[in-house]
Amino acid sequence: MSFDSTSSKKLNLDKANNFMRQFRDPDSRELKKLSANQFMEVWSHYDRDGNGYIEGTELDGFLKEFVSSANFIDVSPDAVSDAMLVELKACFMEAYDDNQDGKIDIRELAQLLPMEENFLLLFRFDNPLESSVEFMKIWREYDTDGSGYIEADELKNFLRDLLKEAKKINDVSEDKLIEYTDTMLQVFDSNKDGKLQLSEMAKLLPVKENFLCRQVFKGATKLTKDDIERVFSLYDRDNNGSIENEELRGFLKDLLELVKKDYDAQDLLEFEETILQGVEYSSDGKISRKQLTMILLALAKHHQEEEPGSP
Fold it and tell me: Per the database record, which ranges form the EF-hand domain (predicted)?
C-alpha cells in the first residue's frame, strides 16, 4: 500500500516537471527576457521532430506547460483539461498564428516570448521586402565570394547591417553577433550544413508576396493583358522595358518556388537555362514582354493540366 502511494507521488512530480517554469520569475511568475541561446533551448525542446514548426501534440504540450507554469504553485501541465486546451489553442492561434496555417513557426514564437531587444529585431520585419528582385540584390551583396551560399561570416555581416538599419546605431558586441549568427543558423539552416542556401535565406528574409501564387496564374481565370502588364512592372524595377539581372533572378526565384521547396543557387541557374531555352531567349540576358507572356501562359496551362478532372 505504502509502495503504491510513493510511486504515485513520484509520478506526479514527474508530471509537474515543467520546462517553461525555469524561464519565469519565481516571485511574479512573469516570463524573464530570454537570450538567443535560451530561446533556441525552448524552440528545440518543443519542436521535437525538428521540422521547423511547433504543431499537433508538440503545440498541445507547449500550451499546457506555458499556461500551467504561470501558477504560483507547481501544478502539472495535465491540470489543463481538454476543453480548456481547445479554447486556449483557438485564442492563442488567433493572436499568434499570423499566416493561419494551424502551427507555430519560429518567427511567430519570437513574437510571443520576451527576448533580448536586439535579437528580437532580427525576427521583426516590419517592412517585408517588396519583391524577390530586392531579395536577389541583397543575396548578391552578401554572398561576397559568389559561392551560391551565405556562410557564417557573410551571415554575421548581414545581421550586423540589419540591426544597424533597425536601430540606427551600432551597439551590438562581436560576441553577441556571433551568438546571433549561430542561433540564426540553427533556426534557418534546415539541412544543417553550416551555411544558408537560397531557399533557407528566403525564410529569414521574407518577401511580401510571391505574386505568381495568385489564382490568375493557376489557370483559374483567363490571363488578361493587364495581368501580364502588372507582372512585368513588378519585376522591371528600373522601367527600362526588359527584365534583366536581379530582376530576372527574382522572377525565376518566384517561379522556382512554385515547383520546388528547397533550392539553392545552382538549382536557380539550371532552372534559368531550362526556362529561357523554351522562350527563344537571346544571349543579352534580358526577357521582353512577349517572352514573359509565353512563360506565364505556359505556367497557367501547367496548373490547369495538374488540376484534377481537367481535360
Answer: 34-69, 83-119, 130-165, 176-211, 223-258
DSSP calls for 61-112 = HHHHHHHHTTSSS---GGGS-HHHHHHHHHHHHHHH-TT-SSSEEHHHHHHH
Q: Which of 41, 235, 202, 214 is nearest to 125 (CA)?
A: 202
Nearest one of 124, 283, 151, 274 to 206, comparing CA atoms? 124
Section 36-55 average pLDDT = 89
What is the rounded CA–CA span in Å between residue 136 and residue 168? 24
Q: What is the residue whose three cell numbers read 533580448?
A: 116
d(CA 309, CA 311) in angstroms, rounded, equals: 6
Q: Give every CB contact of residue 234 below 8 A, 6+ residues apart in sequence.
A: 131, 211
Q: Extract the C-alpha cell encoding 270.
A: 539550371
pLDDT over 70 percentage in the chain: 86
In angstroms, the CA 163 to CA 69 distance is 32
Where does the chain have alpha helices with state H? 2-15, 36-46, 56-68, 82-96, 106-112, 117-121, 132-142, 152-167, 174-188, 198-204, 225-235, 245-257, 265-277, 289-306
Cβ(48)–Cβ(58) below 8 Å: yes
What is residue 1's predicted lDDT score, i.e. its pLDDT?
A: 40
Q: Which burial class, exposed, middle or buried, applies to 72 when counting CB atoms under 10 A from its CB (0-12, 13-18, 19+)?
A: exposed
pTM for the structure as a whole: 0.72
Rg over CA atoms, the chain: 24
Q: How many CB atoms lie within 10 A of CB 116?
A: 16
Q: Report pLDDT digits (tens) over 261-301.
A: 889 999 999 988 888 887 766 667 788 898 898 888 888 77
Residue 159 near residue 181 (C-beta atoms within 8 A): yes
Better-scored residue on pLDDT, 206 or 62: 62
